[in-house]
Amino acid sequence: MRYYVIDLSTLPKYEQSGKSVEDKPRKHLHRVLKNFELFYVNSGELWLKQGEERCVKQGEIILHAKGEQAGTRLAVSSFFWLHFEGNVEIYDNEEAARLSCAGKEKRIYFAEQFTLCSEDRLTVMLTELNHYFFEKKDGLVKDCLTGALLAELGAQYRQSVSPYTENKRFAEIIGWVSLHISENFSLAALAARFGYNGKYLSFLFRKFTGRTAKEYLTEKRVECAKRHLTGGTNSVKRVAYDVGYEDEYYFMRVFKARTGMTPSDYRKTFSACYYT
């Protein structure tokens, strides 16, 4: 695994960005990159090779350096991509990358590939970049947005590697929740699945996330709903069902309480630009 250290005291240079939606199995291009390319997969999976073959799954990002890049397998996927230039150093181990950033506020690092903690933030930022690219707007704004996006990735990587190391069993629970967030399961069912009683599982959620289990699940379901709303055309009723709510009106109330917007208004505001 490689680790990227990015010095944000100098703005990165935005090159181009977009979103690809592959509803039929397709293999990514084989080419030589002249700049850095970031991928964020928001559904399906993407098989890529740069040095070694990697499968990038839903909710994950991968960053490729300059050089040869190839798709290796056919897959159905939907993903954002971003090309940029910047002051980037590459390390073969995390400790060296971390030490190079110690005490330097504007240097960030993250792994070549990792799972995002908050996909909706990246979706909104990449969608905004796509609008600016499509409308051929101010280059300085695009550079600033690219810098903000990279800083967000640095913050999310720190969050992804630190919160649950005390309790690997709880990390397994969080991972299961992420994969099954669209299912309408109760806290009692979740506790039973992992051999805990409800009160103790609630204690673990408060200890490791700072939120109740219900608050955590609601947050993740709303994040998932945002991706469905901006990346697809399904009805609000269908989106509600797909993120674990049988009652679309209850879902609408929950969504507005969390975001300040109705699902329909959110879709209109943050509707994604599509590129192939």
Looking at this protein, list some descriptive labels.
276 residues; alpha+beta; Jelly Rolls; 8-stranded antiparallel sheet; 10 helices
Assign an overall shape: globular
Top CATH class of the largest domain: Mainly Beta
The CATH H-level homologous superfamily of the largest domain:
Jelly Rolls
Low-confidence regions: none
How far is the first residue's CA from the last residue's CA? 29 Å
CATH architecture of the largest domain: Sandwich
Radius of gyration, in Å, reads 19 Å
Number of helices: 10
Number of strands: 11
What sequence of helices (H) and strands (E) makes up the elements? EEEEEEEEEHEEHHHHHHHHH
Structural class: alpha+beta
DSSP helix fraction: 40-55%
Total number of domains:
2
Main beta sheet, described? 8 strands, antiparallel
Description:
This protein has helices at 94-101, 119-134, 139-161, 168-179, 187-193, 198-209, 213-231, 236-242, 248-259, 263-270; strands at 3-7, 13-26, 31-33, 36-50, 52-57, 60-64, 67-71, 75-85, 88-91, 107-111, 113-115. The chain is α+β, with helices and mostly antiparallel strands. It has two domains: 3-161, Jelly Rolls, CATH 2.60.120; 168-270, Orthogonal Bundle (Arc Repressor Mutant, subunit A). Strands 2, 3, 4, 5, 6, 7, 8 and 11 form an eight-stranded antiparallel sheet that branches. The chain has a three-stranded antiparallel sheet with strand order 9-1-10. Strand 4 (36-50) and strand 5 (52-57) form a beta hairpin. The longest helix has 23 residues, at 139-161. It starts with a strand and ends in a 6-residue tail after the last helix. The mean pLDDT is 88.
